[in-house]
């Protein structure tokens, strides 16, 4: 691992992180409002741990990932990596820190320069950060290709010559080049077929076991998250509404939104009756979020209190932290309560496990 080890200290600390984008207005006119894309997000990430950020489109999970890497300037809050406050770093200091924080994008094709060979793409970060020189860079590129399961001869080829799964392996190799402590994986398998998803998820797990880096894993697919995450944070309208160890979250989800996400997986059995209550309504506009608990217009359990008073996060004996006024009194057999093992999630898990077993055989 890079950097000074601090026994027991988390690698990443995020506190009250916020990003508000002005909306409306034009070249000469003033903004007419703000979108609170991220609004007071806090979490920690331990070394070698995978924390998944999940939620519907537009919930702020990708923006959070970019704020952590400081690809976006936050409106407020703090990010510290290995005890170093990211805000206030000079450009040079930030560049040094960036070596330790990398990203794998959703669309590997869009993130690879089509005019560069794979060898040049992988050599770039090595040379930029002084991790190789002209004499040994070729060998290090081949090493990286081998680590992600690609042939050394591929260094001469261009991105368009590869399949989606191979391109994502190249994206992972590029992120690994600087031997980072933290990789933000932004929907890294969403654009891939299920069998290829399994290969890339398994590769990420194997690399983590080998090199010990932490992942902030941004995804909307609950099967993939269950496969790879240690802890899960559920986001809704720019805030974390529940964060818990994976085993706790999947077996005893507490927040009504978490329950709805887990229950919302359809049941694609021929002739199967539609048994589940899906999330109703759309995510409200983040320009005008509902008052009180922002989930209340879609929540089956909302009360008058929910419409006026925002719930503060509370931590429960099983370690889950949940922002909901009524966790203790939600009916156990409510229609939104997820099964312990949602069938579709279970089936996807089986596919991922089978692919891993096939790869190991
Ligand atoms: Fe539903 Fe109220 Fe809990 Fe919000 S605070 S999730 S509206 S029960």
What's the assembly state of these chains?
single chain
Small-molecule binders: iron/sulfur cluster
* Cα end-to-end separation: 30 Å
Structural class: alpha/beta
Rg (C-alpha, Å): 21 Å
Give the topology string: H per helix, E per strand.
Answer: EEEHEEHEHHHHEHEHEEHHHEEH
Low-confidence stretches: 1-7, 266-277, 333-342
Reported by name, the CATH topology of the largest domain is Rossmann fold
Number of strands: 12
**Proportion in β-strands:** 15-25%
What's the SSE blueprint?
Elements: E1 12-23, E2 33-45, E3 50-54, H1 61-68, E4 76-81, E5 84-85, H2 91-98, E6 101-104, H3 108-111, H4 118-128, H5 137-147, H6 164-176, E7 182-186, H7 194-211, E8 214-219, H8 222-228, E9 231-236, E10 239-245, H9 246-251, H10 256-263, H11 304-308, E11 314-315, E12 321-322, H12 343-360
Parallel strand pairs: 3-8, 3-9, 6-7, 7-8
Antiparallel strand pairs: 1-2, 1-4, 4-5, 9-10, 10-12, 11-12
Helix pairs in contact: 4-5, 6-7, 7-12, 8-12
The structure holds iron/sulfur cluster.
């Amino acid at each position: 691992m890079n950097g000074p080890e601090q026994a027991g200290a988390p690698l990443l600390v995020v506190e009250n992180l916020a990003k508000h984008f002005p909306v409306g207005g034009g070249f000469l006119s003033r903004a007419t409002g703000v979108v609170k894309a991220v609004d007071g997000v806090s979490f920690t990430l331990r070394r070698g741990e995978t924390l998944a950020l999940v939620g519907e489109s537009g919930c702020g999970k990708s923006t959070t990932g970019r704020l952590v890497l400081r690809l976006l300037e936050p409106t407020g809050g703090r990010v510290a990596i290995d005890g170093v406050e990211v805000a206030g770093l000079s450009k040079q200091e930030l560049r040094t820190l960036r070596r330790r924080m990398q990203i794998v994008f959703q669309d590997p094709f869009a993130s690879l320069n089509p005019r560069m060979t794979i060898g040049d793409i992988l050599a770039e970060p090595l040379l930029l950060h002084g991790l190789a020189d002209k004499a040994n860079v070729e060998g290090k590129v081949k090493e990286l290709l081998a680590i992600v399961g690609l042939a050394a001869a591929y260094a001469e080829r261009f991105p368009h010559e590869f399949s989606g799964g191979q391109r994502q392996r190249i994206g992972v190799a590029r992120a690994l080049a600087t031997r980072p402590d933290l990789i933000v994986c932004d929907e890294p398998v969403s654009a891939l077929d299920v069998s290829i998803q399994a290969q890339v998820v398994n590769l990420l797990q194997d690399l983590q076991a080998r090199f010990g880096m932490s992942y902030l894993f941004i995804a909307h697919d609950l099967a993939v998250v269950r496969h790879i995450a240690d802890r899960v944070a559920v986001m809704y309208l720019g805030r974390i509404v529940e964060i818990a160890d994976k085993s706790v979250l999947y077996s005893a989800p507490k927040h009504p939104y978490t329950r709805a996400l887990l229950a919302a997986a359809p049941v694609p059995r021929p002739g199967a009756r539609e048994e589940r209550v899906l999330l109703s309504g759309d995510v409200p506009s983040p320009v005008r979020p509902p008052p009180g608990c922002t989930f209340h217009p879609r929540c089956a359990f909302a009360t008058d209190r929910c419409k006026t008073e925002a719930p503060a996060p509370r931590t429960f004996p099983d370690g889950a932290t949940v922002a909901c006024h009524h966790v203790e009194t939600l009916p156990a057999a409510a229609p939104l309560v997820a099964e312990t093992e949602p069938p579709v999630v279970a089936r996807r898990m089986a596919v991922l496990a089978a692919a891993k077993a096939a790869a190991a055989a």
